[in-house]
């Protein structure tokens, strides 16, 4: 039994050592949505140029002990995906929901958080709350809007083609809904509330109401590793193992709760 235990410990140590040796000292360039995806990634208004958030804390906890360096950049989401796909400017895109077409260019990591899709609407557009028993009921009232280049199919109810994906920021999406261009917009409450971290209150309960998209599954989020990165498989193993460890020891929950307390209800 003693020898077996020593063997397991030695095997684990060798596995971690191999990972650390392979990428130790290498700088991995991550990117996120430059328009903001708080509390997961956001630019601190008091520290210009510094990207903060849940995602940043998570990748530091995984990579720092292994001696792997990292950078986090903030282009537009479209550029983040395109420039990660080629594997040169960036190697990993943060906070991506699942879309089958992305598997051509990317390797998905293990999921490290989930959100819930809600539909938001202007209170003054409806005398009474709209009757929405199925996701497709939303389409009967007018345009259902979303963010440009975002994926909405991860929750399994709405297709990207159902959604008018025109807004390049959440503030623009809210404005288009309040001025009547959109009957609804699809969003995640955790992100809309997260904008309080950058001084924006996008969920004004006097102006907007929201409810879960009927029968929508939880929207799981992943990191996307470029298939053109020469160490893509090694990096997936490191990130997956790290996410699993942080899930099991409670650190993922603790990090997320830290930001939820900062945001408030």
Strand content: 15-25%
Instruction: Provide mean pLDDT, rounded.
Output: 90
Radius of gyration: 20 Å
Strands, total number: 13
Q: Which H/E pattern describes the elements?
A: HEEEHEHEEEEEEHEHEEHH
Helix content: 25-40%
Q: What oligomeric state do the depicted chains represent?
A: single chain
Uncertain residue ranges: 1-21
* Broad structural category: alpha/beta
Distance between the termini: 51 Å
Query: What would the principal axes of the Cα set say about the shape?
Result: globular
The largest β sheet comes out as: 6 strands, mixed
Task: Tally the helices.
Answer: 7
Structure keywords:
six-stranded mixed beta sheet, globular, alpha/beta, single chain, 265 residues, five-stranded mixed beta sheet
Question: Can you offer a commentary on this structure?
Answer:
The protein is of the alpha/beta class and 265 residues long. The protein is built from 7 helices and 13 strands. Strand 2 and strand 3 form a beta hairpin. The N terminus is likely disordered.
